Structures are given as C-alpha cells and as structure tokens.
Amino acid sequence: MKRILLVLVTVLFGLPAVAAELGDDGLHKTDWMRDTFKDLREDLAEANAEGKRLALFVEQRGCIYCTKMHNEVYPREEISDYIRDNFFVVQLNLHGDTEITDFDGEVLSEKAAARKWGLLFTPSILFLPDEVAEGKTAQTAAVAVMPGAFGAGTTLDMLTWVNEKRYALDLEEDFQRYHARRIQERQNGSTD
C-alpha cells in the first residue's frame, strides 16, 4: 500500500521516484552502482571495455546531502539514464574499511584512501580519464571532482561535461562557463 501511495504522489506532483535503498553499510544503493573488488585499475579497464567513464562516488552513512542527491537528483529519469548509459560507478565509503587498490598500486582501506585523496565532504564524485599514468592516484588523475550536493541541472551538466571530455576540448570554456551557457540555453528553450 505504501508503494502504491508513493507512486501516486510521485506521478501527481511530478516528483522523481525514490530509486535508492539503504544498504547494510548505511549508504544508498542504486541499480547503476557496480559491486567490484575495488581495484581501480581493473575498474577503469572494465569501464573502458564498456565504453563508459569511471566515476568514484564517495559517500557516508547519515549524510543528509547524499540523501538529498539520492532522493531528489539521481532518481530523475534524465540523470539516472545518463549515468547508467555513460558511467561505470563505484561507490566508496568515506569511513569504510573495505580494501581498495589505488591506481598507484597502494592497497588501503576506503577511509585511508579518502584521507590520502584529501576528501573531507560527502558526497564527492571523482571522474577518471580513460587512461591513468603510472604512479598517479585517483585524486591526482581525476579530470574533475564534484564536491557536495547540487541540483539536477548542475549535476547533469557536470556529467555531460565530463562524458563529452569538454575539459580537454576548450580551455576557454571551463565547467563554470559551460554550465552558465547551458543554464542560458535552458532558459531560452534551446538545448543544442
């Protein structure tokens, strides 16, 4: 009965459907997150084999901003579909003990990796390039980092900017300029 009520409210008010459930670790789980051995070089190779971009979603139990993203932003069809179609997402726990292998070969816990990478806030998303040079860490190799919770437009623009490799195309249009242009285009009714 609760599920039917949720669907009715979602349809009537145009709200995104709740797509994430809480896992045993207290983190939100979605169908587009991958359960891997957390060897980042292997994850990157698998992402490349699928023609997708590797993204590391760093979250923590009880994070109100993670909840906001999972309840209000990620469930939007255009965003969840875009992530599912274009990104290979590996979730990491800011305070987790699961071992990961960083690109530089160091094996450490999720929480030690988060400290190593200088991550203080959740959610944080690290977007990785197609290739990571020897000796680089996830943080030093990342082409972009999205620290914190943002609205649907900003999130979709960041996903698109990274996926289209716009960071490498035009130094005159960094993400902020790209995002400002996209906002203006949406206001003008043009999305080309």
Automatic annotation (TrEMBL):
Entry keywords, A to Z: Signal
Q: Where is the Thioredoxin-like fold domain positioned along the sequence?
A: 48-131
Name one matching Pfam family: Thioredoxin_2
Q: Does the keyword Signal apply?
A: yes
Q: Which residues form the signal peptide?
A: 1-19
Name of protein: Thioredoxin-related protein
Q: What organism does the UniProt record list as the source?
A: Litoreibacter janthinus
